[in-house]
Design a protein that fits this description.
Chain lengths: 593, 454
């Protein structure tokens, strides 16, 4: 009998739909359990559009059913879905009331009839415990005329070659673990150390230097995100003549052909492919999943090339980016062109469509290049730490509600990037943290400004004299707001607080800021600057604590020290100097998508 | 001390060399290993200075001339003849074997004469230089020190003395003793087989006068393919084998799977990694050169070798084979440039054929034959460079085949190539005729020798 699970992420999204419309469900099917992860909604009423985006989902996350919002019900759609559901003969139908999941009906098709099926809600911890992702990066070249037919047929041949038995080998990065296509299931090596995909995660952890398997060491801390298996690809270039299926015993010897007036292009097909993996899947089944993910990624690249030719464009290289909007709880892959900037109109149109597909507002960026997921291997080794507040000790506010920064930021502090700013650079560092937030949220691709950039800008706008450049002079909240405007075109509200003690009365205002804007706040007062990245507020009793990122930290990027010694942590109102006045620079999100 | 293990048959060969001639020399071929132990697989006397005896009608004439022309001492060795043999023989070796040094058969042990030794030092220096100059033939291995062997067989004492020649950077060098042993038992060899498929397109180099030099283009592509091969992984029985694992451990572990197989199958995997995807570019070609076909690969390894060494053998085999084909092809080109009117030009470098080394526990060397040539053509080269007399049944030409007619037939402009491909066929036909003539000459010479010796 089937079991149905729906992620809590998706339930929240279903709740958010206020219109009568239809959508498609995407999920995975393992162990007789259908887990629904994602959805898209119709962009034109009555027209299902899952074909436009199904390739953007990770491999193994496939069309799995239909969702109806409100009273509309269309028999025809169900038939269509039934036909296109490849991973199960039993698609799911969810029927939601508008704006609420109370009374949501879930059904399953069995032998052509709808039967009611109960569902379980899957919370993030369970999702991260049961699933992980693979990310395969590789590059293939095709040599082709720049015509639709030629590109199509070349990529088709490539996909066929890849799908042939044993054509590729996969290497788990940073380990010596290889996966080849013709490994028999009883192979000693695999069954001993890596029978299931979850064992591969342990292998990676061990290779990284953790002697003990991670799940033993960190038994107490549940995973807070997906583990991603980074995988590289090797292409088999030997003909397997020992293969009994291969009756060819002689091979044509090497020959060359010169074509003097041949005009063709060598197009690199950059593959960056993701697949969702159920951790209890046997490793022997992983090879086929990875092949499927590579083929799916190749289709996306092909689509992009063909689109360009239809539009009579000079071909640019398609590059794949992965996104994971916070509300989704899964990855989504989009292909953008190497030479086309995010600000061009065509790109804006593309993104607008994506927002519509996923029922996202067009007030915030979700699919700009800067929004892409930063995988561990993409982060530079000398980069500041990201989201240092995750895992800090609890604030201790009784019955408080936490209002936190929304999204990612880098923790900038003294002495980083080889700049000795100990004693004068705290506000610069706080500004850098603010800039990093706008950068990581996709609002800008402008790099985080250096101390010198900041000083030069303030001189250029004649706020400071020329001697300010390369000096060790402080800046305050006003300068921070001017710089945000100058560098990022971001406006800020300045909140004046006459004494540190008065900050205790600003709970509601700060809560509203974090709820509506969600940007980190720079606070300057006396001789110090800090970054506020959240509050814990009991509105009834007025209890308030501040989640502080302290830029005065001078040591190396050690999260244990940063959290343990309170460089990032909850501070009570006593933290602020009663005798000083404070200015808070509260950046406001521009409307961008 | 370095140990060199040869077979009793090699001693017999040296003895045989001394039967007919007062002085002879040649190359030592073997497999060096990381364990400071080298295995000798073949000795090949240099016969380039032998006179063509068919030219002379009487036995006395032959003998007189032989006395005049043949080298009598190390000083008489023609460096060019030796260089020819070193290069040609290296091309014929699988990637697991290398020219380890030179041997000399003379009345007195060569190490007893300073003058002889000084001449041999020069030849050994030349050998080292030559191998370095022809690096594409992969004539040296990283596990092999730069030193080379000098083997002396004295017809008077019937003794073999072998030493290594340690070259000095500033020139010259000195000899160090090695432990040379003749074993009665054959060395245990394990064969590995794989193929390397090439299917690559490169931009064509066209010079300022709009001419295309085939040789330049082929060498440019060869160098690029070489860089690809260096970035490959080799799997055995489809498994990634730890480089430090010894072959004998692997054999024990896979006993059941390997029970009856003639060769252990290897597969070559090429990396598809690029370090910076944001930097990749579309390359537009005006004129292209396409490489397509298969390089067959067979190497042999001693069970004490590690897989690091075996992978190296396979890499060297493929690199050497590509270089050998390309060089042989380019050497035969009458005109290295393509005419202005030719838009389409197919080059068919010679294909690889294997031949058995008698009494060697299954070892094979290889030779390259052009389209249309009969495999027996390889026999002449084997005789000249390896001092091996081969029957047709010892030559195996079935692993690689001539290019398939349809390989490059994608293009409609095929007709325009007819002129050039006829030229190509012409070269092939000429080589074929030369091959047959040489074979007949060898046959006549042996019949003549038979009567003379009677």
């Amino acid at each position: 009998m089937f079991k149905l699970k729906i992620t809590s992420f998706l339930l929240k999204r279903l709740e958010g739909i206020q219109q009568e419309l239809t959508g498609c469900l995407f999920g995975v099917f393992y162990d007789s359990t259908i887990t629904v992860f994602g959805m898209n909604v119709e962009t034109t009423i009555g027209k299902l559009n899952y074909n436009e985006i199904s390739l953007k989902f990770p491999a193994e996350m496939d069309l799995i059913g239909l969702v109806k919002f409100g009273d509309c019900f269309d028999e025809q759609n169900i038939g269509e879905i039934l036909k296109d559901c490849e991973i199960t003969d039993n698609p799911i139908l969810l029927h939601c009331n508008l704006g609420s999941i109370i009374g949501m009906k879930s059904s399953i098709f069995v032998h052509g009839k709808l039967e009611s099926i109960p569902f379980e809600v899957m919370e993030p911890t369970d999702i991260y415990n049961e699933f992980c992702f693979s990310r395969v990066c590789c590059n293939f070249n095709i040599y082709t005329e720049e015509t639709i037919d030629s590109i199509k047929s070349n990529i088709q041949t490539l996909r066929k070659d890849i799908a042939a038995n044993g054509a590729l080998a996969f290497k788990l990065n940073k380990t010596s673990f290889f996966l080849t296509g013709t490994i028999s299931e009883n192979n000693k090596k695999y069954s001993k150390n890596a029978e299931y995909i979850e064992n591969l995660i342990t292998i990676v952890d061990q290779a990284k230097g953790g002697g003990e398997p991670k799940n033993k060491k960190n038994k107490a801390t549940p995973p807070s995100d997906y583990e991603v298996l980074e995988i590289s690809v090797l292409k088999n270039i030997s003909t397997d003549y020992t293969n009994p299926d291969n009756d060819q015993v002689t091979f044509p010897a090497l020959a060359t052909c010169i074509r003097k007036s041949d005009v063709n292009s060598k197009i690199p097909l950059n593959v960056d492919a993701m697949a969702i993996l159920y951790k209890k899947t046997k490793v022997s089944g992983l090879y086929d999943i990875l092949i499927e993910s590579v083929c799916r990624a190749l289709r996306l690249v092909e689509q992009s090339l063909i689109e360009q030719l239809y539009d009579n464009m000079e071909i640019s290289i398609p590059i794949t980016y992965h996104f994971s909007p916070p509300a989704f709880g899964h990855f989504l892959s989009c292909v953008y062109l190497q030479n086309i900037s995010d600000n061009e109109q065509a790109m804006q149109q593309k993104r607008k469509k994506l927002h519509h597909h996923f029922g996202l507002p067009i007030t915030k960026p979700y699919f700009r290049r800067q929004n892409r997921v930063m995988f561990k291997c993409d982060i530079k080794y000398d980069s500041p730490l990201m989201n240092t507040h995750l895992g800090v000790k609890p604030s201790g506010v009784k019955d408080g509600k936490q209002y936190l920064v929304q999204g990612n930021y880098y923790y900038y502090h003294y002495m980083q990037q080889n700049v000795n700013d100990n004693g004068w650079g705290c506000a610069y560092r706080s500004l850098q943290t603010l800039c990093s937030w706008f950068n990581l949220q996709g609002y800008t691709s402008t790099p985080v400004p250096t101390h010198e950039d900041i000083q030069r800008y303030l001189v250029n706008i004649e706020d400071k004299p020329k001697t300010f450049i390369n000096s060790k002079q402080w800046i305050g909240s006003t300068e921070v707001s001017m710089c945000l405007n100058g560098f990022l075109n971001v406006n800020s509200k300045i909140m004046h607080v006459s004494s540190g003690g008065d900050l205790s009365s600003k709970g509601s205002e700060l809560a509203l800021h974090f709820e509506t804007q969600g940007t980190p706040i720079m606070i300057g007062g006396g001789v110090l600057a800090h970054t506020i990245i959240g509050i814990d507020f009991n509105s009834e009793k007025g209890d308030l604590k501040f989640l502080i990122l302290d830029p005065h930290y001078t040591e190396s990027e050690d999260l244990n020290v940063i959290q343990g010694k309170g460089w990032c942590g909850w501070k009570s109102t006593d933290f602020w100097d009663k005798k000083s006045y404070y200015n808070l620079c509260m950046p406001q999100r521009p409307i961008v998508y | 001390m370095r140990t060199i293990l040869a077979n009793r048959k090699h001693e017999r060969y040296l003895e045989k060399c001394s039967e007919n001639l007062k002085f002879s020399f040649g190359v030592i071929i073997g497999q060096p290993t990381e364990q400071n132990k080298d295995f000798i697989v073949h000795l090949a006397r240099n016969s380039e200075q032998d006179l063509d005896e068919d030219q002379y009608s009487t036995k006395s004439q032959v003998l007189t001339n032989r006395k005049q022309g043949l080298p009598q001492s190390a000083g008489d060795i023609d460096s060019q003849a030796l260089a020819n043999q070193i290069i040609s023989a290296t091309k014929m070796l699988p990637g697991c074997f290398y020219i380890l040094g030179l041997f000399v058969v003379s009345k007195e042990p060569i190490f007893e004469s300073d003058q002889e030794l000084s001449a041999m030092k020069n030849h050994l220096q030349d050998l080292i230089k030559l191998i370095n100059e022809h690096s594409s033939l992969c004539g040296s291995s990283p596990s092999m020190p730069t030193n080379k062997l000098l083997l002396s067989y004295s017809t008077r004492t019937k003794q073999t003395i072998c030493k290594t020649f340690e070259p000095k950077e500033e020139g010259g060098g000195f000899f160090m003793p090695v432990d040379w042993k003749y074993l009665d038992k054959h060395t245990e060899w394990h064969k590995f087989e794989t193929t390397y498929e090439v299917d690559e397109v490169f931009p064509l180099i066209i010079d300022e006068e709009h001419k295309v030099n085939i040789e330049d283009n082929l060498y440019m592509c060869m160098n690029l393919i070489n860089t690809y091969i260096k970035n490959t992984e080799v799997f055995f029985l489809n498994e990634d084998v730890d480089e430090n694992q010894m072959l004998e451990t692997f054999l024990k572990r896979n006993y059941s799977e390997l029970g009856s197989v003639d060769a252990i199958s290897a597969s070559i995997f090429q990396s598809t990694f690029i370090s910076d995807p944001s930097n990749i570019q579309i390359k537009k070609f005006r004129g292209s050169i396409k490489f397509k076909g298969v390089i067959s690969c067979r190497v042999w390894s001693h069970p004490k070798n590690t897989f690091r060494e075996i992978k190296q053998f396979i890499h060297h085999d493929i690199l050497r084979s590509i270089a050998a084909r390309t060089q042989t092809y380019c050497d035969g080109l009458a005109d290295p440039t393509i005419g202005d009117n030719d838009d389409f030009y197919i080059s068919e470098p010679p294909r690889r054929v294997y031949f058995d080394i008698p009494d060697s526990n299954g070892l094979q060397f290889s030779e390259y034959i052009f389209h249309g040539e009969l495999p027996i053509v390889a026999a002449a080269q084997a005789k000249e460079m390896m001092d091996l007399s081969l029957d047709t049944d010892k030559i195996h030409a079935d692993l690689e085949s001539d290019m398939d007619e349809n390989t490059f037939a994608l293009h409609p402009k095929r007709q325009s190539s007819s002129g050039t491909s006829v030229e190509q066929r012409e070269i092939g036909r000429n080589m074929y005729i030369i091959g047959i003539v040489v074979a007949i000459l060898v046959l006549l010479a042996s019949i003549l020798m038979h009567f003379i010796m009677k």
